[in-house]
């Protein structure tokens, strides 16, 4: 009994618990919506969304479907890391989709028109994302423009710009709205390094997936173990105090958004350079990848490592949504579920407060009256999140 | 040229309505980044009403029912923001963003389910309202007058009076400037903020239905409202949170938005042969530039974005 209590007080355990609460509530609301549309198949539909690849009939098909989900988890994870990194510095990087578009634009252009090897295209994509990110950063640092609004504006500007650039003769056939397929020669695509054999020879499974996980660990190390990360977080906590302590707060804002932009740009490279899909030059809405990244970030408890699992979950329910009976249910139901989860993540602080309240009440009423410092813990947990 | 004027005015009406909504919310102390989502919900309410009304309905009933449905849904949806940010002190940026995603997803799911229930083969996410839309239009020469334009002007005047000339408005603004002081003289800050957010739901929902009836007679709900809610926020900042300035800013932005609809009909613009994507980008680029020059000395309500906590003084 005592062990269980101390587990509940553990902040990381609380984060996981609150994320699970968000998931369960989100799925429950999604289920209710499915019931309202058609009660007969709602149970099966929510099961399909949850289980995704596990619903396939043969083991080879399951492996292949899992590979597809993982291939799309890598870019999603990069977008989530971008948002997570910036949020830790007190910036809400809703411009991640725009930075992602820029990465796709330059990365694909280089790969198709110049046949650059994949790592060169990847670096170019990162630079493109960083440039877009630093525009938001500079506007925020020097002109006091809210990064959310400038981010949204840039999302649309870069979308149309990307459509124009990739719609040129060098990257697109006249007959098709999609960019040309990447050739298999000359290291243009991200190599698979044997990973594909694990997933029933699914060619879209590449080293992008382990690389994305490495990036997550790298971001975690930078944020929590280095002086650079400490300075950035200090700027996020209190800009004026950071300035007083001799930190270059304006420069930190720009650097943060540039790094966030680079991460999102790499995310685009991780999707488009595997040949998983082509860029549609006629699309007129901002890619969902960046917005799903917001869900993954907050569901992952704003922790780079938690983000890995959250990204997989979000991508899995998105892919699961595409498998449900489309003649009865809309596949966008998974978007609905993830957006409800994001909304509920806003209540995380309240959930944690409620848990701590409950613990302290229980402690007071129970036999362990001597357990006084509970209230301090609660206050710390609450203050630490902000 | 008449066409340009007509589109400018209708888009300016949208921006003005939604920006006024943001203005009320921010004056009460809550940043409403969910305006985009509120617009989508308003658009959904209005479009579904127009779609459902039987063919012979009188023009007056169509106008009233559509407008009310849009307003009602906008206000209902804004409650999500109010509950989370006022009562539960959630992060306003996060909740606003969640609302935008939620509105688009919910509207898409709803419209698709509705279409499929009427015709099992119909899996589109759009609603058509060619017939009922005509109820809103009146032709004055070549100019296509829309009743929504009048509504926008009336609401602009009402907003101005409400904000500056009534006790309610002054109290509302006090809650956005210094909620502690407002509370100390007996104003209920939570109630005032609720009022601010609900008014923004009212105006945002109305703006949504105006937007999707401007120039088109069918709306694909997967698209949301294409960042228009955020353009309205840019208009609000450019207008320095003042109704009259907001109206002027809305006209400027409306002009740039209208250009992308009508540039082919204007000889000297068509002759320049600028690709259409440039016109699509134009409103967003202009708003970035404008924000860069106006945000530095902005007179934003001082306490906006900070959840009010009675215990913190």
Can you summarize this structure?
Chain A is mainly alpha-helical and 386 residues long.
Task: Explain what you see.
The complex is a heterodimer of chains A (386) and B (313). Chain A is mainly alpha-helical. Chain A contains 17 helices and no strands. Chain A has helices at residues 2-9, 11-37, 42-51, 59-88, 96-114, 118-143, 147-166, 195-198, 208-225, 227-237, 239-244, 249-272, 288-299, 304-321, 333-345, 348-365, 374-385. In chain A, helix 3 (42-51) crosses helix 14 (304-321), helix 5 packs across helix 13 (288-299) and helix 6 (118-143) runs antiparallel to helix 12 (249-272). The radius of gyration of chain A is 22 Å and the shape is globular. Chain B has 313 residues and is mainly alpha-helical. Chain B contains 13 helices and four strands. In chain B, the strands form two sheets. In chain B, strands 1-4 form a two-stranded antiparallel ribbon. In chain B, helix 2 packs across helix 10 (228-238). The mean pLDDT of chain B is 89. The chains are: A mainly alpha (386), B mainly alpha (313). At the A-B interface, helix 7, helix 13 and helix 15 of A face helix 3, helix 4, helix 10 and helix 13 of B.
Give the helix/strand layout.
The complex is a heterodimer of chains A (386) and B (313).
Chain A: H1 2-9, H2 11-37, H3 42-51, H4 59-88, H5 96-114, H6 118-143, H7 147-166, H8 195-198, H9 208-225, H10 227-237, H11 239-244, H12 249-272, H13 288-299, H14 304-321, H15 333-345, H16 348-365, H17 374-385
Helix pairs in contact in A: 2-3, 2-15, 2-16, 3-14, 4-9, 4-12, 4-13, 4-14, 5-6, 5-7, 5-12, 5-13, 6-7, 6-12, 9-10, 9-14, 13-14, 13-15, 14-15, 16-17
Chain B: H1 2-28, H2 35-52, H3 59-87, H4 92-118, E1 126-128, H5 130-133, E2 137-140, E3 143-146, H6 147-165, H7 167-177, H8 179-184, H9 189-213, E4 218-220, H10 228-238, H11 243-262, H12 267-272, H13 276-294
Antiparallel strand pairs in B: 1-4, 2-3
């Amino acid at each position: 009994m005592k062990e269980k209590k101390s587990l509940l007080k553990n902040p990381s355990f609380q984060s996981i618990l609150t994320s699970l609460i968000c998931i369960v509530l989100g799925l429950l609301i999604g289920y209710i919506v499915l019931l309202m549309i058609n009660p007969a198949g709602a149970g099966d539909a929510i099961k399909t969304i949850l289980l995704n690849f596990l619903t396939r009939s043969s083991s080879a098909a399951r492996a292949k479907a899992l590979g597809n989900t993982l291939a799309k988890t890598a870019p999603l994870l990069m977008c989530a890391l971008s948002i997570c990194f910036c949020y830790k510095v007190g910036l809400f990087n809703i411009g991640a989709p725009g930075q992602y578009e820029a990465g796709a634009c330059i990365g694909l252009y280089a790969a198709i028109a110049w046949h650059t090897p994949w790592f060169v295209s990847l670096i170019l994509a990162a630079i493109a994302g960083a440039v877009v990110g630093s525009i938001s950063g500079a506007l925020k640092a020097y002109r006091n423009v809210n990064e959310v609004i400038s981010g949204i504006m840039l999302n649309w500007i870069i979308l149309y710009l990307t459509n124009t650039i990739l719609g040129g003769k060098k990257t697109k056939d006249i007959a098709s709205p999609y960019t040309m397929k990447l050739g298999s020669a000359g290291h243009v695509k991200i190599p698979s390094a044997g990973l594909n054999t694990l997933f029933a020879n699914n060619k879209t499974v590449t080293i992008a997936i382990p690389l994305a996980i490495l990036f997550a660990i790298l971001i975690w190390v930078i944020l929590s173990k280095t002086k650079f990360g400490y300075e950035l977080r200090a700027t996020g906590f209190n800009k004026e105090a950071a300035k007083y302590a001799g930190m270059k707060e304006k420069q930190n804002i720009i650097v943060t958004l540039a790094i966030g932009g680079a991460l999102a740009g790499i995310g685009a490279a991780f999707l488009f350079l595997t040949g998983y899909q082509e860029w549609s030059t006629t699309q007129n809405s901002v890619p969902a990848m960046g917005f799903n990244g917001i869900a993954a970030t907050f569901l992952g408890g704003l922790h780079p490592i938690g983000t890995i699992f959250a990204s997989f979950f979000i991508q899995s329910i998105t892919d699961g949504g595409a498998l449900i009976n489309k003649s009865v249910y809309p596949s966008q139901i998974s978007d609905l579920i993830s957006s409800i989860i994001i909304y509920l993540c806003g209540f995380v602080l309240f959930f944690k407060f409620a848990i701590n309240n409950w613990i302290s009440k229980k402690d007071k009423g129970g036999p362990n009256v001597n357990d006084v410092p509970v209230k301090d813990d609660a206050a710390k947990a609450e203050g630490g999140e902000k | 040229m008449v066409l340009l004027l007509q589109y400018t005015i209708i888009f300016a009406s949208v921006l003005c309505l939604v920006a006024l909504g943001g203005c009320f919310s921010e004056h009460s102390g809550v940043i409403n980044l969910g305006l985009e989502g509120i617009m989508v919900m308003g658009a959904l309410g209005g479009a579904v009403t127009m779609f459902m009304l039987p063919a012979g309905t009188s023009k007056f009933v169509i106008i009233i029912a559509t407008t009310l449905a849009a307003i009602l849904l906008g206000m209902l949806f804004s409650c999500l923001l109010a509950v989370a940010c006022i009562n539960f002190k959630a992060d306003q940026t996060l909740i606003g963003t969640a609302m935008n995603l939620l509105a688009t997803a919910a509207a898409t799911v709803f419209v698709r389910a509705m279409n499929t229930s009427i015709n099992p083969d119909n899996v589109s996410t759009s609603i058509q309202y060619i017939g009922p839309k005509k109820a809103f239009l009146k032709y004055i020469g070549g100019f296509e007058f829309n009743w929504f334009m009048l509504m926008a002007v009336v609401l602009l005047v009402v907003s101005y009076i409400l904000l500056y000339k009534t006790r309610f408005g002054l109290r509302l603004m006090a809650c956005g400037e210094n909620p502690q002081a407002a509370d100390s003289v007996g104003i209920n800050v939570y109630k005032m903020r609720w009022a601010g957010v609900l008014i923004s739901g009212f105006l945002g929902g109305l703006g949504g239905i105006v937007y999707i009836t401007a120039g088109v007679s069918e709306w694909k709900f997967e698209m949301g409202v294409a960042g228009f809610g955020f353009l309205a926020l840019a208009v609000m900042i450019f207008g320095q949170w003042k109704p009259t300035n907001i109206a002027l800013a809305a006209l400027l932005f409306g002009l740039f938005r209208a250009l992308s609809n009508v540039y082919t009909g204007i000889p000297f613009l068509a002759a320049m042969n600028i690709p259409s994507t440039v016109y699509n980008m134009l409103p967003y680029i202009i708003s970035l530039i404008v924000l860069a020059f106006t945000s530095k000395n902005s007179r934003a309500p001082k306490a906006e974005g900070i959840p009010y906590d009675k215990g913190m003084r």
